Amino acid sequence: MNNVITELLQADDLIFSPPKFNSRTLTNGIKVQSYVKHHLPLVQFSLMLKGGNKYDLRSKQGTAYLLAKLIDEGAGDYDNYQLSDMIGKLGASISVDCGNENINFNLLTLSENFEKVFDLLLLILTKPRFNDEDFEREKKSLLIFQNQIKKYPDFIASRLIPLFIFDESNPYSNSSFGFSNTVETISKSDVVEHYNKFLSSKNIAINIVGSFDEANVLSLFEKRFESLPKFTPIPQYDYAYSEMIGKQVVVIDNKNALQSEIRIAHSFPKRNLKNIFSNSILNLIFGGDFSSRLNQNLREEKGLTYGIGSQIVNYLEASYFNAATSVSTDESFNAVNEILNEMQKIKIDITEKEITDAKQKIKRNFAMSFETLGDAINLLKNKTYFDLEDNFYDNYTASLDLVTYDEVKKNANENLKPDDCLIIIAGDKEKILAQFSNSEYKNIVISDVEGNIIQ
User: Using CA atoms, how far apart are residues 87 and 232, in angstroms rounded to an integer?
Assistant: First the structure.
């Protein structure tokens, strides 16, 4: 770690001016966020195409994920092996992944090879082959994955939160990978239809960081994207939450498991510029840091877990709060009670010192978030995803400082819901039910690994 960063981390009152990001809009409407940094001859590039898993049909969840897996399996005149060979010879990497809003095309290359590698990525984007053999292989792989994840209760517990938190009409209740029965119904024509529905310049945003000539790159983008369709309509949705009254316990049986995976979640106000910094402070104090209240209680004082954390999960149109840990199965009941007790306590009281310390930690983390190209591209993608103002990062620390004690306390009091929440426990059903049977927790159901209520 260099001396400048070390000094920043040790400062009592951190003053940090972030580097300048540039924003442009191409003539066809594509938004470009850029950051020129010449310390290494590298370029990192991200193209975000609307069409993520929230746009899947409910009965065909997993379509967008399959599209992301299939789209780089050959393009134009090249099959997958030829594409991989050309990319490798250029010392570059191209990957495609699927999020809830977007399908993301990622590129890392030497600066001198950027145009050549970018053209290969553009070929993948605009002229995928979508061969039957490749589709069947990727679909089979996803179905195998559906069976494999049944062995991982931590993954299952986290995966099912959106399914129970959001109303079934809410697209954020979709599973990224789908479920066995939904993946089975997906045909290649479904994937191609999904692709054709979203490929247009209106649905694309670009982020680029590293060592490049900005004027040349913008000119390149103008020329290469001019033949894209200009507009496709985006589906509109209802972003409703499920009605959550009381403590609703969902037990996922993992017979003979030695540990239980616990998730406690509830709806939370959608992220916006008014609450983002207060939310960050509140979460850091409660469970977002090693020194958080949750970790001090359940790990340091009670010895119930090796680690516990919380987060506010922010989608573009909805958010939810989640605390997560794993404990010995015999301690499931005690751990749930301790988490809920901490939620009650923080609703009542937060100290000025906790808020001051949290602000300093957030500032230091922010200063560190510009250290690598990967960090910088993530900041740009976050800015693009949430359509943040151009000066958002310029004003970051000042906006954080403006958050008052009363704002954080009000946030905790109004938005944490220990009495109306979802409690998911993946573990040995019989042992868990024995602990909860004679307690205040009356609303208890048994679910399979795909969220189907079976008892």
Answer: 31
